[in-house]
Protein: 7057_t:CDS:1
Organism: Dentiscutata heterogama
Amino acid sequence: MVQEVYSQQSYLSSPIRFTRMFSSNNCNQESWKLGHLNHVAIAVPDLKKASEFYKNILGAKEVSEAVPQPEHGVYTVFVNLGNTKIELLHPYGDKSPIQNFLDKNKNGGIHHVCIEVDDVKIAIKDITSKGIRVLDPEPKIGAHGNPVVFLHPKDCNGVLVELEEVKKS
């Protein structure tokens, strides 16, 4: 569907034409559904300082304690914002992927976004059939105890995307 929108600017004698495109969902997603933004993950060089920023400066009411996730090579802290979360990531162990990120980004920064899906295995099958690479072919258990998979950032507009299976009750 195409909708034409016109805007009259005072310094121009004729209107400017904008075209807004609306596309239908052409995905073969009959067997899986894309859900809510679960969290935005931020790699931080100082986990205590970052936690205190969200708690004491911004006033977040729910800031978890640091939890080691040795299987993922990170410590995590979750800042609950009500409608979503911020996940603070800090290196754990010698082979932490977060350390690699921090080596390139000394002050830290956004590492990935996590979006909920209702069936991660079916989502992987559908997404890979469309040429999108996954970092691991099989889901792993993430920080929330749910199956997760990461999509290659080169196939996702430069963004590392995590899909997390969350069953709605």
Q: What stands out?
A: The first helix runs from residue 47 to 57. The radius of gyration is 20 Å. The CA atoms of residues 91 and 100 lie 9 Å apart.
